[in-house]
Amino acid sequence: NISPFSGQQCDRYNGRPIAVMMAGDYAARPLSGISQADMVIEMPVITGSVTRLMGVFVCNLPTEVGSMRSARHDYVSLVRGWDAIYVHWGGSSFVLDELKTGVRYTGENLGTIDNVNALSASGPFFRQSFAPAPHNGFSSMPKVLEYAESRGYGLENTFSGYQFHGPIAVEEASANAQGGSLYVGFGGVFAVRWDYSPSENHYVRYWSNQKDTDRTTGGEVTAKNVVVMRAESRQIEGQYNTVDIYGEGEMMLYQNGQEIKGTWKKDGFKGTLRFFGEDGQELKLVPGQTFVQIIEPGQSLVWELN
User: Fold this and answer.
1) What is the DSSP track for the chain?
2) pLDDT digits (tens, 9 = 90+) for 99-153
3) What is the pLDDT of residue 141?
4) In terms of Cα–Cα distance, which of 255, 275, 257, 258 is closest to 266?
5) Cβ 264 vs Cβ 247: under 8 Å
6) Contact, 269 vs 108, CB < 8 A?
7) The pTM is what?
8) Distance (Å, rounded) from C-alpha 52 to C-alpha 280?
9) Exposed, middle or buried by CB within 10 Å (0-12, 13-18, 19+), for 68?
10) 45 class by beta-carbon count within 10 Å (0-12 exposed, 13-18 middle, 19+ buried)
11) What are phi and psi of 243, to 5 degrees?
């Protein structure tokens, strides 16, 4: 009875994933509900600059998630591979057309997906006065589920899930781990550092040199696994870009205080994103939150042991 994304036991282990678009902007920080996601994806929405996040929720259904932002077609491709319900506040013309018709902006008919848009479904969404516009939009996961049920969306998980280490393997792998820091070279205020704690066997997230916290819990944002993928990003129209998260590419997995080189693979626009070691076998994750960060080929990535 474990979540297909976190490998942790929970009552809602077989519930359909809910994928929520969240802001990366400095003015929107700290985010609400981010620490309660089973998996988080972060990638650029402007080449070499602004990033945006998507939290995937299975086990936990926070009553406040945000600040929310608009949809992008690259995130929709990830959602398709997991058969998640996509939750967003508007979106680019590219993605809104795809959500409505099922046709990607490049012409492929991929089929429509279940989504909840704040611009047409008011019930699950609200605004908070502590956040400046346009970062003041938030959502409630229980109300998203209620809305999804009213729309006739399926509520059971169909994703086969990732593979996970057992407790003995985790204990053995982390027994002699050293502390260290991982520097992920997003630009400017989007730069990320992860400090590995051997005693807790997790990575503590820093955003623009400030410890990242969850607004609703007050606790720090941590991850058991940090995956860093490399993929090309390029502008396609005005402020909108596209990220080549299709096919395969270089990746690094950080877990148990170790750096593991591998390859990410995604079979087309509808395939599931998966991670493989140098031996070609799918990599196992440590049970807990996984944070996936997608950087461009020229951006830096440094792992330093203390």
Assistant:
1) -B-TTT--B-TTTTBPPEEEEEE--GGGPSPBSGGG-SEEEEEESSTTS-EEEEEEESS---S-EESB--B-HHHHHHHHHHTPEEEES-B-HHHHHHHHHSB-TTS-B-----EEETTT--TTEEE-TTS-TTS-EEE-HHHHHHHHHHTT---B-------B--HHHHHHHHTTPPPEEEEE--SGGG-EEEEEETTTTEEEEEETTEE-B-TTT-PBPEESEEEEEE--EEEEETTEEEE--SEEEEEEEEETTEEEEEEEEE-TTTSPPEEEETTSSBPPBPSS-EEEEEE-TTS-EEEEE-
2) 999 999 999 999 999 999 999 988 999 999 999 989 999 999 999 999 999 999 9
3) 98
4) 275
5) no
6) yes
7) 0.96
8) 30
9) buried
10) buried
11) -120, 130
Burial 212-244 (b: 16+ CB within 10 A, else e): bbbbbeeeebbbbbbbbbbbebeeeeeebbbbe
Longest dimension (CA), the chain: 53
Question: What is the total residue count of the chain?
Answer: 306
Retrieve residue 299's tokens: 């951006």
Rounded CA separation 212/18 (Å): 22
The predicted-structure confidence for 263-289, as pLDDT tens digits, reads as follows 999 999 999 999 999 999 999 999 999
71 close to 21: Cβ distance less than 8 angstroms: yes
In angstroms, the CA 80 to CA 108 distance is: 14
Q: At what angle do helices 73-82 and 93-101 cross, to 10 degrees?
A: 40
Band (pLDDT 50/70/90 cuts) for residue 48 is confident
